[in-house]
Automatic annotation (TrEMBL):
GO MF terms held by the record: DNA binding
Top-rank taxon, per record: Bacteria
Domain Helix-turn-helix positions: 2-50
Family annotation (InterPro entries): HTH_17, SinI_DNA-bd
Xref: NCBIfam families: excise
Pfam families tied to this protein: HTH_17
Name under which the protein is recorded: Helix-turn-helix domain-containing protein
Source organism of the structure: Priestia veravalensis
Amino acid sequence: MYLTLKEAAEYLSLPEQYIQSLIQQGKIRTVFDGEQYVVNKEQFNTHFEQLEKYKKQMEEYLSEPIPEDMDVKDED
C-alpha cells in the first residue's frame, strides 16, 4: 500500500517537513507516480517491529528486582 507524504506523516505521527527531510537524506524510499511522490507503507514494518522489541526489552529490564547489597547486611 502506498501513502502520500501527508498520510505517511500521519501514520508515523511525525511532521510532514520531517518526513520530507528523511526522504532527502535517503532514509525513506519514495516512488513518483506521475503526479506526486508516494511512500510504500511496508518499509516501516521493520521499524515498528524493532520498536516493539526494544519496548519489551526495556519492560523486562525494568521489572528485574534490584539485588540486595551484600555490604548492608554485614554487621561487623
